[in-house]
Amino acid sequence: MSHFSIVCRKCGKMLENAYCAFCEHCVNALLVTQYKDKEFSCGQAEGAWKFNWLPVHSPGFRQPGPAVYRSEGFARKIGIPELYICFCGYWPEKGAHLKTCTFKEFEAAVVIQNAMENGMQGLVAASAGNTARAFAHLSSVAGFPAIIVVPSMCLSEMWYLGDEASGGAPTIAVSDGDYADSINTAKRIAIVAGMPFEGGVKNIAKRDGLGIAMLEAVSTMGMLPRHYFQAVGSGAGAIAAWEMSERFLKDGRFGKVLPALHLAQNLPFAPMTKAYLKKSRELFPEDLDFALVSETTTRVLSNRYPAYGVLGGVYDALEATGGVMYGVANEEVYAAMDLFEETEGIDLVPAAGVAAAALIQATRSGKVGTDGPVLLNITGGGERRLKRDRAVKRVSPYLISKNASENEIEKLLNYAMR
Length: 418
What we know:
Strand order of the largest sheet: 4-5-15-12-13-14
CATH topology of the largest domain: Rossmann fold
Number of strands: 17
CATH class of the largest domain: Alpha Beta
Structural class: alpha/beta
Oligomer: single chain
Distance between the termini: 39 Å
Number of domains: 3
Mean pLDDT: 92
Radius of gyration: 20 Å
CATH architecture of the largest domain: 3-Layer(aba) Sandwich
Helix content: 25-40%
């Protein structure tokens, strides 16, 4: 018997075995994991696998978790008396050992383990950079085949550890498109390759994996935060934080109020921010313009298909928690990255800088203050620190057009997977 079921958030239908799907009756509603154990607990396993609210049974590889600590320098500088940092990156001195320097590593680990337990022989994953790096790394660690699809505009994010650069995860770069085009291309590649598409936000393993940040935070803090800050692209991490917080509320020992979600995007490409400021459940087409992406410093957040209006998505998470969305300009991102490194002693990736900048905005506007603990999810950091310790290599991608025919895809796969 499994320790979890999968339930439709809208109609309540229960699915005992579902790798990645929507409810057949409610195609615009996310499924959610329902764990039989209503009380949160940590077992004897190491790292991320110690938590009972994960959709896996017997993980066969090691996966480090994040480092959660109470901030002093950054908290004092911006005026937050009770600020906790969930550092998802590489910072050995703090106990953070993510070798891809991103919280997407939790997602990849849980998705791969869940896929193996569901009898999958491999998968295809689309990414704007960080997720691809995480899946490539975990593919090597777990010995699980993966094909990575990224837009060529995000190849600057694609580096691997030197001793894993020849792992079994070929990277295919879409030469003439963005993240949305990469998702579409990845779905077509999955069909030709006979491998499942990782599935994005509708994959419950993805969201629960990203929820490890909240699990570790509450485990360390002993309570739910009052405010939660994170940068968002697809929105999966924010939905995960909300879903995990709902489980803690039902447990009853960690607080009685859901954390308010404070979610940030990098201007000018901030479709969810702009829609939510108008209280619209639908995104506006003019805010999804591909040209806006090139003006941002965080292309890893440039998802034109975010899980925003779907039932159980970002809009509902914000409404349920009394949340706020922020638009952060490039200069604010860089300033926040510099301030964090100056006060905490570790470098951030730009996406984490977006979240830190949003927290600075919130303190200046009075949206957060002394009404309870604040949790800042640093969604990536320590790249420079890692590169002092380990050799890294740039990926050598296989290029493909978003308009490639099935024959062209098959030819490429035959070459890439030799």
